[in-house]
Write the structure tokens for this entry.
Amino acid sequence: MDQTMPPAVPEFGQRGSDTSSGEPVEVTWRGSPWSLTGLSFLNFFLSIITLGIYSFWGKTEVRKRIWSSVRINNEPLLYTGTGKELFLGFVIIFGVLLLPFILILLGLTFYLGENHWATITFQVLFYVIVFVLFGVAVYRARRYRLSRTNWRGIRGTLTGSPWRYAWTYIWTSILIIFTAGWILPYRTHALYQRMTNEQQFGSELFKYDGDVGDIYARFAGIFFGGLAIVGAAAWLVAWMVGLDFSMFSDPEKLAEIESNPAAATQFIWILAAVMFVYVFVLGLLQIVYFTSITNYITRHTTYSSARFDLNLGYGGMLWLFFTNILIVLGSLTILQPVAMARVSRYFVERLSVHGTVDVEGIVQNAAALGTTGEGLAEAFDIDGF
Amino acid sequence: MGSDRQLFSGRFSDGASARSVEVHGEMRAHGIVFWPADAEVASAAGPDPWEWDYGTLTTSAGLHAQDLDVVVHHPDMPGATLFVEDRTFIRTLVAKAEHTSSSAWLWRFTKPALAILAVLLTGAGLFYILDLSPAKTLARMMPQEMRAQIGDSLFTSLTKDKYKTCSTTDGDAAVAVLYDRLKRDGDGVQSIRVIDWGLENAFALPGGQIVLTRGLLQGAESAEEVTGVLAHEIGHVVKLHPETGVVRAMGLTVAAQFIFAGGSETFGGIGTVLVALTFNRAAEREADDIGLKILKQSAVDPKPLAGFFTRMLKKHGFDGDKTLKKEKGETDSAFERRRKLQRGLAQSLEMFSTHPPSEERVKTINAAATYTPRPVLSDAQWKALKAICKS
């Protein structure tokens, strides 16, 4: 026997230098998002020459890189999905859903004409199906990604039903319009609650203990504040250009404007200015809402004996949002992976975990891995990462 | 020899639980060997330390010499991970297990792209070399009723309140005389219509429908020229080129959907179909061949057809949609849609401009003029045909 051979040891897992099972957790980010630049350009090139088919593999490689930048107690998260899985997932959905739809629609269009009731009904039916499946797609995509996320060899999963999630997704979506957006906090709360309480890493479930009342308290300020800002902005713009508001209730004045090109042009400019302010303010408010709520729900999420804490800043989020838009648009979307990595880094660097995790008690979950991924999400172009 | 030993430390997880233990190990000639850090002081006998062969171990990413850390796996222990933060370890690993290097990784990374590219090129090559046309096969399988429906639908889209169908008793009779002269059993021609469109053109639609334009009749220098064009269109009908074009367009739409993953902009409806209806050179040559055969059997002079192509070559541009005017009560978007459709039609129907008549084509036609022709129409009939839209 080799003299350098170390002494024989007992089975791993039974012994070791750090056997205390309650382990404090630290999440960190390693590397620079810009290190994905080369990969982004290579992906773009390879996707172009393969008519886009390669993008499934390219996306996988980007995920591997972003995942491994995230460190939990210094050890990287590993993404174990493959391009082939994403590709097959898409091919299946394409064959089952999109292809029959396109063929039937083309057939109807040729056979009965574009404006025939059957053609229109079929199209409407298809969009309803897509709407229903959207929630399913979101849930399944998350489940696939979790099942392909490993840390110390342990993977995640979602244990619930995609259809139950989709149901909440659908009815709350419909109510957004009828409640003028007032359902949004409930929707955020309900969807996050369902997803989180069904989310597992290894054998252990995550738990969400947030209160919808707290979310409404945060939302109300933004909602009414937003309304006030938009209203004030509209009046301010109108005052600056000297618009006479009485014209809206005076048919004669309206008719006058319609027949006077200069006045009509001015009116259109005012509308455009109000729309711009509205969209801009609404965009800002959305970021503010997202930041506030994401911090809240994360702080009300626990795993094992640990509680998460997130401190996204409003200024930081706005900066991240606008610079990412510049990066993505400026590079004609080629540098999208860099933008994604920047978001990931920003979140990870502001995430902390209080308490400990019973690492020894966390064993591999028994959920089947599946062989294809995210077909629906790919087909509907849903993409977080 | 002890000073040559390359030792390392790391953390090992067996993949059964999320616990990890500190390990110490050594890089040997054939693989890495490691054991729990506290086992070095333990004296109890137990199983051997883990030994992972360089040939079979894998890493979670391609390794650069400047990398700070690595996660190593082994197929014998699925789920188990060895995490090592040691540059010397990484450099040695890259040297001994070349498949873990970033260059090997890059190759693995680009291999699927090359495979996809190879499949695409081989497929395209095979189709080209073997002249495989699934579109043609599907077109043959289409029932006549369906072809006629599609043809009608396209004809309606083309003329929609804009170009009426021309008809006079004498003009219709002249068209009938022309077709009677060229008619062959089973040529599939169902109708020949003249529409009131100034564009100088003729086209074949699915279901054996041939459409001639007023512009064609007025620009033609002789009845033989129109007869030659008609014979060429019959060639398209015989070979089911319009039906093949429709099937191909459906295929293109589906392919576009696939490539752009459901992007709705690619689904352009009938416009897309019409653009793809443009016949390719091979189809034009086929239609020429058949047209020339028909002309010969019918003793019609083919030279005027060559004259027609030459004239087209000189004058044709594609401005079919520029003359389009917005109709009363039509919304901007409806007009824009109609304009796009019209342009699609013009592009697909102006086969002569997308596949301009080549010198070779003109030569082939002239070379076919080896027989003694008989006139097709009397002067009176020719005049009636030219005036068919003046009803």
Q: What stands out?
A: Residues 261-299 of chain A form the longest helix (39 residues). DSSP finds twelve helices and twelve strands in chain A.
